[in-house]
Structure formats: C-alpha cells, structure tokens
Known about the structure:
The chain is α/β, with parallel strands linked by helices.
Amino acid sequence: MFPYDEMFASHLNSLETKHLRRKLITVDSPQDKFLFFHKKKYLSFGSNSYLGIAQHPQLLKSGRKALQKWGTGSGGSRLITGNYSIHEELERKIASLKGQEDALVFPSGFQTNVSVLNAILNNEWIVFCDRLNHASLLDGIRFSGAKIILYKHIDMNDLEEKAKKFSGQKGIIITDGVFSMDGDIAPLHHIVEIAHKYGFLTMVDDAHGTGILGDDGGGSSSFWCVKGLIDIEMGTFSKAFASEGGFVAARKPIIEYLRHMARGFMFSTALPPHVAAISLKAIEISQKEPWRREKLLTLSQKLRQRLKIRGWKVFDDITPIIPLLLSSPQEALDLASFLREKGIFVPAIRPPAVKQSRLRISLMATHTEEDLDRLVEELDAWKNKSL
Ligand SMILES: Cc1ncc(COP(=O)(O)O)c(C=O)c1O
C-alpha cells in the first residue's frame, strides 16, 4: 500500500469503529415515495423531493422539449457562451417568487452559498451565524476570513446580545430558513428586526423552505410575512422543485455585484438549459397545485402527533422534516436497518452531519395516511422489541 493510502485507510478504520462509516446505496428509480435499490422496493421517507413532482408529466415534457431545442450541456460559463434565455427567465421567476428585484442562478446550492459569501465578505465583516446552519454556509464564511460569531440555535436573546456588542460595525446575520436536520423554522421576523436595529444585513438559506412554506410557496420569508425584507435570499431547485441548481435573490445592486464577483458564477459552466427549464416548470407546478403543499403540511402535522403520543421526542414544528433523536450512531444504524428489513427506508444521520444521531424522516406530498400507518407500526414494533 502507498504510504498516503495507509493514512486514508486508517482514518476510515477509525470511522468504522465509531459506527460513522458511510455506505452508499445505489438507487434505481425516480425520487418518489417508493425507491428501488439493491433489487428491493422500499417505502421511502428519505427524499428531499418534498412536493413529489420528480415524475410529473409536465415536468418531464418541459425537460424533453428543452433537450430537443438546446441539446445537453450549456457549453460554458454564463459570462462566455453558457447564458440562455431560459436562465434569465428562471431568474425573473425566482425573483418574483421571493419578492426581490433580481436573482442569479448557480449550478448548485452549495456553490451558491460558498460563492456569494466569498464575494461579499472579507476580514472586515462580522458574521452572526446560527450554530446549526448548513455546512455550505459555514464553509463560505470560513473561506472568506470574516469574523464568525455563533449564536445559540434560534435563540433571539442570544443573537441580540451578541449583535448589540458589534453595533456600528459591518455585519450580517446568516441563518437557514428551515433547518435541514431539525426541521424547525428560523424566526425571520425577529431576525429582520434585530438586523434593522443594529444596522446589519440578513442572509437566509431557504433550501428546505422554498416551495413548501407560505401560501404561494415563497418559503420562510413568505411564512413570516417578511417577503422582500431579507437582504439576500438563497435557495435551491434540488429539493421541493425536484431539479438541480441554486439561486440567490436580492436587490439589483447586490445581484449585479455578484455577477461580477461570485467566482462560482464566473468560473463554472452554467446549468444545462434543460435543467433550467425543469426548474422553471417546477415553480409553475408548485403554484398551480397548492394542494401538494397543503397535503404535505397536513401529513407532517399528523405524523408528529402520532409519534408524540407514542413517546418519541418530536419537536413542535410544521415542516416535512421530522427527526427522531436517538442515543448513539449505532442505535440510529440499528433502527434504520430494522426498518429496511421491513421494506421502509429512513436515513440514519450521524456526526459530523449532526451532533446527536437520528433518523431523519422526510415526507412527500405523494405519501398517504396508509404510508404513515406503516411507518408508525414498524416504529412501534421496534419499541416493543427493545423493551
Ligand atoms: C440548507 C442547505 N443549503 C444548501 C444546500 C446545498 O444545496 P445543493 O444540494 O443544491 O447543492 C443544502 C443541501 O443539502 C441544504 O440542505
């Protein structure tokens, strides 16, 4: 073995002994409530395709039409030859959904966060960052060299106390809209208030709220009635919209600045035009079929109640992300594999993705009450087995 390989192998071995080694599953079906992998069909509670539209006939049709028209790849950066009218149309649509003046689309959500933060921040900035913010936000802040002040998760007293100390300096408050592993919602109305009081900007990563929250699917800002009041709103097309790519929506000067300064926009090949077409159609479907959002939130509420009655520690939230907190990585793996034996897939989430291991249940608008029954029954069976 090459000496460096030994170093990598020994790290992997240490992960194995702590039950933290990952094994990829190889999926062989679209992202709907049934997943096929390793030659078996599973009822899945593990996808971020919350609205359940990955096989929507209109979405497939618009993708096929765009493929016919524009071919496969985009051929270059948006600044060279990769800029298509469909990218611009998508940007107008997302700006309007978010109540902002303008928007910019990137090849992925992760790339959006890292690029936007590095374009805007430097070591003169103070960043107030929720402790549980997504890894792409944390990486973006770290790479920028800005001073990072972590505040307690969703704790507005802690945020305000910290913000007060830096009043008058160049600062920004950054939070997830919906937290990806806990499923709770940041109180954006309070965050905007604190930012205005102390003269800071706000940035929200609404990867998991966009398309889901608010009557119009506008996301967390719509839910808290602060649509258009967040300075920089980021999100992805890769979750509720069943597509790919990230976006940022903001006032015109911020977006124009990012067109000139965001390196992940400047130095990366644009999203293929047919993917942009799929995203655009997905937003339209989410607006024309609000029943998907309504059903999703009803199912989420019902499942939470049922789990609570059965003694599971479940937070009082409304989103389709429902974590079941467990005592150790091993317990998370054991429960996940117990469910898999029964034909149900729920992913085990372990450090470093989270501090406390858990099963992350995520619901889709295509789930039914009977699907919830099946999940609850098997969770009961696990509890009874462990007594
Ligand atoms: C909160 C949050 N932000 C950003 C991202 C990155 O988005 P993408 O998967 O489109 O790169 C994710 C994806 O997991 C996320 O959960």
